[in-house]
Design goal:
Strands 9, 10, 11, 12, 13, 14, 15, 16 and 17 form a 9-stranded antiparallel sheet that branches. Strands 3-2-1-4 form a 4-stranded parallel sheet, with helices on both faces. A 4-stranded antiparallel sheet has the order 5-8-6-7, with helices on both faces. It folds into 3 domains: 84 residues, Rossmann fold (3-Layer(aba) Sandwich), CATH 3.40.50.20; 61 residues, Dna Ligase, domain 1, CATH 3.30.1490; 200 residues, D-amino Acid Aminotransferase, Chain A, domain 1, CATH 3.30.470.20. The longest helix is centred in the middle third of the chain and has 17 residues. The chain is built from 13 helices and 17 strands. Strand 9 and strand 10 form a beta hairpin. It is 31% helix and 27% strand. The structure holds adenosine monophosphate. Adenosine monophosphate (AMP) binds next to strand 14.
Length: 380
């Protein structure tokens, strides 16, 4: 049985690694001849808009899924006319547009920060008047890892942004002085069974995820319940199949939904060692209509992204309870090259192991020291 995957980055790589023990084969489509999955599976190198390549790609596949959320919706729909495509293309369409995404949250009664559309630069002043400052201006589409965003604190920032704005639809959001960022991973199978992982605490630098703590330290049951309710609403309303991630801000004791990703997610990498069933295996079980596996945690985890450069493997493994994942990409600044997961029996043991990591991990961009202080204060 061969599963087709659109996108051939590390998420696809880990999906395939989870699928081999289930007897599955994989075929990937990615425009880059460097896509890391080429090391471990069939890779078709073609543009997502190349219909002849899509046609050939789909031949003999059981189903198609994706690991990259900016796959053109037209490509997903073209394939959906030939073979089942999960999650449904409507989920892709919603998640690709920050305005549609926030409007869906609003329609489902899921709290968000206040927002207003800015379809042309001359609408910015009215939006600022409505939302207030400080605010965050974002392109509706193609923004990820903090790209395409401007923080507006003063009238001068607004004037400057107006002079620089790209001629694309934008959204203005009220800036949230959040206590922390959390995300939830939920999964729904093609026969409607759902399962939800515990909330994860995420630390970003420059808009890129650097560190996740899972389950999130000092997790109040009402906060977990609110996140689960939000996830269930989205899963049901989109008749979703597969893993879905929703990112939240925790602010004033409540959750505000920021965005969703219709795929396995970086903040779920801890589940490989830290949950009974990984997000990758559960995504595959979901799209195949197999019973889902337990999403229960198997300890306390930290996941650190390796961005731009790699530590010495021996130095990582010198610390007990560490696991190293390398994606087979050549190092380049800002590139996600791998991750390290630590799993321990208690939060105290996890903090000890984190403090034992080599100096490479104690630079400010790993967020380790701030996370340890933050978690300790949250636990106090
Ligand atoms: P996003 O691309 O929406 O995930 O934004 C990237 C990062 O920018 C988030 O993880 C937050 O740290 C920050 N951010 C985005 N939107 C807001 C907001 N409305 N208020 C405060 N910080 C934000």
């Amino acid at each position: 049985m061969t599963i087709g995957i659109l996108g051939g980055g590390q998420l696809g790589y880990m999906l395939a690694l989870a699928g081999y023990p289930l007897g599955l084969h994989f075929r990937f489509l990615d425009p880059s001849p460097e896509a890391p999955v080429g090391r471990i599976a069939q890779r078709v190198t073609a543009d997502f808009s190349d219909q002849a390549a899509l046609e050939k790609f789909s031949s003999g596949l059981e189903l198609v899924t994706y690991e990259f959320e900016n796959v053109p919706v037209e490509a997903a729909e073209f394939l959906a006319a030939r073979v089942p495509v999960y999650p449904p293309p409507v989920a892709l369409e919603t998640a690709q547009d920050r305005l549609k995404e926030k409007q869906l949250f609003q329609k489902l009664g899921i709290a968000t920060t206040e927002f207003a559309p800015v379809s042309k630069p001359n609408e910015l002043d009215a939006a600022v008047k409505k939302i207030g400052l400080p605010a965050v201006l974002k392109t509706c589409r193609m923004g990820y890892d903090g790209k395409g965003q401007w923080i507006l604190r003063t009238a001068e920032d607004v004037a400057k942004a107006k002079s620089e704005l790209p001629a694309v639809p934008l959204i203005l959001e009220r800036f949230v002085p959040f206590a922390r960022e959390l995300s939830i991973l939920a999964v729904r199978s093609s026969d409607g069974e759902t399962a939800i992982y515990p909330l994860v605490e995420n630390h970003h630098r420059g808009g890129i995820l650097r560190l996740s703590l899972a389950p999130a330290p000092r997790l109040e049951p009402p906060i977990q319940r609110a996140a689960e309710n939000a996830a269930r609403q989205v899963l049901e309303s989109l008749k979703y199949v597969g893993v879905l991630a929703i990112e939240f801000f925790e602010h004033d004791g409540r959750l505000l939904a920021n965005e969703m990703a219709p795929r396995v997610h970086n903040s779920g990498h801890w589940t490989i060692e830290g949950a009974v069933t990984s997000q990758f295996e559960n995504h595959l079980r979901a799209v195949l209509g197999l019973p889902l596996g337990s999403t229960g945690p198997a300890g306390h985890c930290a996941m650190l992204n390796l961005i731009g450069e790699l530590p010495e493997s021996a130095e990582v493994f010198a610390v007990p309870d560490t696991h190293l994942h390398l994606y087979g990409k050549s190092p380049r600044p800002g590139r996600k090259l791998g991750h390290v997961t630590l799993r321990a029996a208690s939060p105290e043991r996890l903090a000890l192991r984190l403090s034992e990591l080599p100096a490479f991990f104690h630079r400010p961009d790993f967020c380790l020291d701030s996370a340890l202080t933050h978690s300790a204060s949250l636990r106090a």
